[in-house]
Specification:
It comes from Microbacterium ginsengisoli. The protein has 374 residues and is α/β, with parallel strands linked by helices. The chain contains 14 helices and twelve strands. It folds into three domains: 178 residues, 3-Layer(aba) Sandwich (Rossmann fold); 75 residues, 6-phosphogluconate dehydrogenase C-terminal like domain (6-phosphogluconate dehydrogenase C-terminal fold, Orthogonal Bundle), CATH 1.10.3660; 75 residues, ACT domain (Alpha-Beta Plaits).
Length: 374
């Protein structure tokens, strides 16, 4: 759990969210919302069908337990996808004075089910913060996981401006960036940038289960980055993938076709056109990576250099301190520490014009530069 001071250290603006806020579901996202709102001085009411999970979130300070007299102005439903529609319907009935939103990672299926039931959705606005961690539950909750992250808000013709402002205000208060998007577009988008990457990471990491210890000892930062999210909870992902199956299958089919083309080329790498197929695959990947938004949401190109950092306390802090003294702004950072090594490698990304001043300044201060931009 993040110390509330980590959130309160942000530049202060007027808090838009008026409490009390009721959060249904005291897992990672629900408890994280609770911590973030409490750090802003907003009253948070927690509820969960699991008494143990609820008590744990309360003990960690994410909010207080619900009472029969509660009159929340906003309800946030943070439950698994297979029960999201049920809980939204229940909360709309139980709290007629409140705006109700949910933070499920699939938006169309719950909406279709609620409409099928004839539920009055005038006070409901679906939303989804693109934030999370590999570990789940209240014990893994952090007040700062929403900072700088997109928060999709799915308005429709029934949505009033006042209710929309409540949900977007919640996102802004938690440090996220509201993004308006329809539920169909949202589900197609997360299939591509979240759901299929989870499957790809899991499928690749599954290859490690029968690998020799000698092979795995060679693993570097590249494979760790590629498989990081493979540590996610299977129970939750079964629900997410099932609820968004059609868009996920569409991306998987296209990916499978691409994999088949590359595999065919590598079966006969000397055949005409085989090397071009492989090269074009890598090139298209380059183009795709370049389109990903970078720092502050900008598609900017940075250059990287690698610094050797001794495996002793305080060295990474000293590196950042001296980069600050040199006037170098670090745009991104990746750390690699291979087992058994007495040093780590810090890959520092900066704007192109800052590479040589940074490298020259660090070398003058005794740092060893392991590699420079090609």
């Amino acid at each position: 759990m993040t110390d509330p001071a980590a959130v309160s250290a942000r530049p202060r603006v007027a808090v838009r969210t008026q409490g009390p806020v009721r959060v249904v579901g005291a897992g990672l996202l629900g408890a994280s919302i609770g911590h973030a709102l409490r750090a802003l001085g907003v009253e948070v009411i927690l509820d969960d069908t699991s008494r143990a999970q609820l008590q744990l979130a309360v003990d960690y300070g994410a909010g207080r337990s619900a009472t029969a007299d509660d009159r929340p102005s906003l309800v946030v439903v943070a439950v698994p996808p297979d029960v999201t529609a049920d809980v939204i319907e229940r909360e709309l009935v139980a709290h007629p004075q409140a705006v109700v939103t949910d933070v499920a990672s699939v938006k169309l299926e719950p909406l279709v089910e609620l409409r099928r039931r004839g539920v009055d959705l005038a006070r409901y606005i679906g939303s989804h913060p693109l934030a999370g961690r590999e570990r789940g539950g209240a014990i893994a909750a952090r007040a700062d996981i929403f900072i700088g992250r997109p928060w999709v808000v799915c308005r429709d013709a029934e949505t009033s401006a006042a209710d929309l402002a409540v949900v977007e205000g919640l996102a802004l208060d938690l440090g996220a960036t509201p993004v308006e998007m329809g539920p169909e577009e949202h589900d197609r988008s997360v299939a591509l940038v979240s759901h299929v990457p989870q499957l790809v990471a899991s499928l690749l990491a599954a290859r490690f289960t029968d690998a020799s210890a000698a092979s795995l000892s060679l693993a570097g930062q590249g494979v760790r980055d590629t498989t990081r999210i493979a540590a996610s909870a299977p129970e939750l992902w079964v629900q997410i993938l099932g609820a968004n199956a059609a868009p996920v299958v569409e991306v998987l089919d296209a990916l499978a076709a691409d994999l088949a083309d590359v595999a065919e080329a590598l079966r006969a790498p000397e055949a005409p056109g085989a090397r071009r197929e492989v090269a074009e695959t890598i090139r298209r990947g380059n183009e795709g990576v370049e389109r990903l938004p970078g720092k502050h949401g900008q598609n900017r190109r940075f250059e990287s250099f690698v610094v050797m950092v001794d495996d002793t306390p305080g060295q990474l802090g000293r590196l950042f301190g001296e980069l600050g003294e040199l006037g170098v702004n670090v745009e991104d950072l990746r750390l690699e520490h291979s087992p058994g090594a007495q040093f780590g490698l810090a890959e520092i990304s900066v704007v192109p014009g800052a590479v040589h001043p940074a490298v020259d300044g660090l070398e003058a201060r005794g740092w060893k530069i392991a590699s420079l931009p090609s």
